[in-house]
Amino acid sequence: MKVLAILYRGGDAAKQESRLLGTVENELGLRSWLESQGHEFIVSDSKEGPNSDLQKHITDAEVVITTPFHPGYITRDLINKAKNLKVCVTAGVGSDHVDLNAAVERKIQVLEVTGSNVTSVAEHVVMSILLLVRNFVPAHEMIERGDWQVSEVARNAFDLEGKVVGTIGAGRIGYRVLERLVPFGTKEHLYYDYNPLPADAEKAVKARRVQDLKEFVSQCDVVTVNCPLHEGTQNLINADLLKHFKKGAWLVNTARGAICDKDAVAAAVKSGQLRGYAGDVWNVQPAPKDHVWRTMKNPLGGGNGMVPHYSGTTLDAQARYAKGTREILENYLTGKPQKPADIIVGVGKYETKAYGQR
Ligand code: NAD
C-alpha cells in the first residue's frame, strides 16, 4: 500500500522537539511502523502546483494523510487523477480541504481524528476573547516599546463579565467554549446551529438558541465561530452580516478563514464596527506576507489577535492526533470498523451531520 502524507515543515524546531509530530521531520511517528508492514510511506510539504509531491504521488496512493495546519487540497480534479485512492485521513479536525462531494461520488472515505484537539482550540478561543476584550496586545506592545501610558490602553479595555457571548456552531468546540465561559459571569450565552443542543446541555452552559443569524449577531458582544467550512458557511460573515453586529463587537474565528470575508472583516475592524478580530485560521495557508489580517487595526490602534494556525496543534494535541491517525490506519488495514465519530464521509455517503443539512 502507498501512503502519502502532506505535513508542514518543522525545520530546526522539529529536529529539537520530537513531539512536533505533525511535521515532515517527525512524520506523525508512523514511518517505522508502516515500513515494518511493507508499506510505502511518502512524506512531503510540497502541495502546490503541477510539480508538487501531492500531485505526483496522489496518482497511485491508496491513503492520503494531511493536517488542516498545512492542508493538501484534495480537489475534484485531483480525486479524478487518484485512481487508487480509498481513504483520506485528516490528522486533526476539519476536513474541508477535501472535496467531500467528489469523495462521496468516488466512494473515497474521509476520516478524521474527531475530538483530538477540541479542548486545545476551546482554550485558544477563550484566550482570544479575553485578549480582545481586555485590549491585551497593544498593552504588551507598549511595554516592549519602553512606553507607559495606562490611559492609552485602558480606554479600550473592558471586562468579560456581564457580556453576551454567542457561538456559531455549538458542537464539540463551541460547547467547550461556553462551558469554559460560565465562571466568568457572562450575562448570557447564545448559539446559532441547525443541530439544537439537548435541553439539559443548554442549561448547563446557560445557552439560548437563536435561529435567525442576523438576530443572533445583533445580540452578541462577542461572536465566536466554531462550525466547519462547507457550502453553507463559506463567506457566512460578510459585509451585509457585519452591519447587523452590535457596534464595537468582538469576533473570534478559529474555525476556518474562508467562513469570513477577508476584506469585509478588515474594513469592519478599521471603521470600528468590529472592535477587534482574532483567530488562527486564514483563507490561504500559509497566509501571504501582505494579508490584510496580519496588520489590520481598529481606530484606537488595537483589535488584532491574529496568529498562525496553531491552536489545535499544541504538543498535547499532536500526541492525540498522531495516535488517532495510527488507529484509523490500523482499523483500515485490519478491516476493523472505524469509530463512528471519525467518519466524515463513509463509502458513498456523508456520515456526519456537521457539514451542512443534506
Ligand atoms: P463538530 O462537528 O463537533 O461541531 C460543529 C458544529 O457546527 C455542529 O454542531 C454543526 O451542526 C454546526 N454547524 C455546521 N454548519 C453550521 C451552520 N451553517 N451554522 C451553524 N452551525 C453549523 O466540530 P468541532 O470539533 O467543534 O470543530 C468545528 C470546526 O472547528 C472544525 O470543522 C474545524 O474547521 C475547526 N477546527 C479548527 C482547529 C484549529 O486548529 N484552528 C482545530 C480543530 C477544529
TrEMBL record:
Principal subcellular localization: cytoplasm
A cellular component term, taken from the record's GO annotations: cytosol
Record: residues binding substrate: V93, N117
All residue ranges annotated as the D-isomer specific 2-hydroxyacid dehydrogenase NAD-binding domain in the record: 127-298
Location(s) in or outside the cell: Cytoplasm
Keyword Glycoprotein belongs to the record: no
UniProt domain D-isomer specific 2-hydroxyacid dehydrogenase catalytic: residue ranges: 34-338
GO biological process: formate catabolic process
Sorted UniProt keywords: Cytoplasm, NAD, Oxidoreductase
Catalytic activity as recorded in UniProt: formate + NAD(+) = CO2 + NADH
UniProt-annotated site: Important for catalytic activity, residues: R256, H309
InterPro entries: D-isomer_2_OHA_DH_cat_dom, D-isomer_DH_CS, D-isomer_DH_NAD-bd, FDH_NAD-dep, NAD(P)-bd_dom_sf
Similarity-based family: Belongs to the D-isomer specific 2-hydroxyacid dehydrogenase family. FDH subfamily.
Subunit-level organization: Homodimer.
Function: Catalyzes the NAD(+)-dependent oxidation of formate to carbon dioxide. Formate oxidation is the final step in the methanol oxidation pathway in methylotrophic microorganisms. Has a role in the detoxification of exogenous formate in non-methylotrophic organisms.
Name of protein: Formate dehydrogenase
Organism annotation: Wolfiporia cocos (strain MD-104)
